[in-house]
Design goal:
The protein has 2 domains: 200 residues, ATPase, nucleotide binding domain (Nucleotidyltransferase, domain 5, 2-Layer Sandwich), CATH 3.30.420; 179 residues, Nucleotidyltransferase, domain 5, CATH 3.30.420. Strands 1, 2, 3, 4, 5, 6 and 12 form a 7-stranded mixed beta sheet that branches. 47% of the residues are buried. Helix 2 runs antiparallel to helix 3, helix 3 runs parallel beside helix 4 and helix 11 packs parallel to helix 12. The protein has 389 residues and is an alpha/beta fold. Helices cover 39% and strands 21% of the residues.
């Protein structure tokens, strides 16, 4: 069977795809099993069959933060890839067992890998680079499932940011002909997809800045906790003016898209520097967490005001959607927006990114492009990912 025949065969029947995502928040591995189909008119559909979240081991989490922020050896990089691959394999096998899924019914395993470095091109002449650790051939061997990954590098090779990639899902499944739609994902970083109701307008998507990353770092620094569950610590604090001003002066927030970011910018070193120059290290931790929480909400809303339409329907996913204080502040920042629940659209807020990467894998095996050049800045669209059987 040649490639064209395979791609036609792939689209001829519903396909069951496992999607996996481990983001910059490092809180765990999201996994879902979804069935995708293409009808006679070329319309894509999906149904989520099972889903789960497996927390990341704390020692691995600390090791990955070390990998992202410190000078390291090639041995450590190689060791990290092996650990990440094995943990993904263990998660897949656990998922299959717990959900009583027959591995022979799974057509594809589509995995993002763990981003440890992301440096997109800063100009038209610059060359970007990115690294998502995970061995695709090893994962295929360990699970017995055809596996696809390494989705970002092809877009970067064509001058793109390599991110965000989720908009291909948003454009297909979240479009409304009645009202503009904004999909907000708040993971370690925050990003938005603006889907105009006018099909003649380009889809727009980009990172807005930090999502949970600065909040989580402050929670570890002041309270020894991994994150602010429900936003309860932020709720008890007040905004510190000097810290607020210095946060709002971060250039990335108001930069025009296309743009993407990661822990290369928003990290412990940045937070420590901001706290020092703002003279707030002696203030209550709740005040610092509240200021960071309000800033995160403001930075998302500011990007919507600058580059999208605040009178849109807004759909929020990712771990930040569970932070009640953050969500309260985001809604206050966008009083003319209509906020919707993801459950109304066929998926829950915590499994969306795993579902999106399942969809991207399904698209790639059908020979369909996975990037949106108007979003990433790539010179053209391209089929994403590398496959191992």
């Amino acid at each position: 069977m040649n490639l064209n025949e395979f791609q036609q065969s792939w689209l001829s029947s519903p396909r069951r795809v496992i999607g996996m995502m481990s983001g910059t928040s490092l809180d765990g591995i999201d996994i879902c099993l979804a069935e995708f189909n293409c009808n006679e008119y070329g319309k894509h559909g999906f149904k989520v069959l099972e889903k789960a979240i497996y927390p990341m081991d704390q020692s691995l989490k600390e090791f990955l933060i070390h990998l992202m922020q410190d000078t390291i050896s090639l041995e450590e990089v190689s060791h990290a890839q092996q650990r990440i691959t094995n943990i993904h394999a263990e998660s897949v096998l656990r998922f299959l067992n717990e959900k009583s899924i027959d591995v022979s019914t799974c057509d594809l395993l589509s995995v993002h890998g763990q981003t440890v470095w992301h440096s997109p091109p800063k100009s038209n002449s610059a060359i970007g680079h990115t690294l998502q650790l995970l061995s695709i051939p090893a994962l295929a061997s360990l699970t017995g499932i055809r596996t696809i990954g390494d989705f970002r590098t092809a877009d970067i090779a064509l001058g793109g940011q390599g991110a965000p990639l989720v908009p291909i899902f948003d454009e297909e499944f979240l479009y409304s002909e009645k009202i503009d739609t904004i999909a907000v994902n708040i993971g370690g970083m925050a990003n938005i997809t603006f889907i105009p109701k006018n099909r003649e307008m380009n889809l727009l998507a980009f990172d807005t800045g930090p999502g949970n990353v600065l909040i989580d770092l402050a929670m570890r620094k002041f309270f020894g906790k991994q994150y602010d569950e429900g936003g309860v610590f932020a709720k008890e604090g007040r905004v510190l003016d000097r810290l607020w001003k210095n946060l709002c002066d971060i250039d990335f927030i108001k930069e025009a898209p296309p743009k993407s970011t990661g822990r290369e910018l928003f990290n412990k070193a940045l937070l420590d520097s901001l706290l020092e120059v703002s003279f707030v290290n002696t203030f209550p931790g709740e005040d610092i967490v509240r200021t960071l929480t309000d800033f995160t909400a403001w930075s998302i809303a500011e990007n919507i005001r600058l580059f999208a339409n605040q009178e849109s329907r807004v759909i929020v996913t990712g771990g930040g959607a569970n932070n009640n204080t953050l969500m309260m502040r985001l809604k206050q920042e966008l009083p003319s927006a209509t906020f919707l629940s993801t459950e109304d659209l066929g998926f829950d807020q915590d499994s969306k990114e795993a579902l999106c990467f399942a969809y991207m894998g399904w698209r790639s095996l059908a020979g369909l492009s996975g990037n949106v050049p108007s979003v990433t800045g790539a010179s053209n669209s391209v089929v994403l990912g590398s496959v191992s059987c």
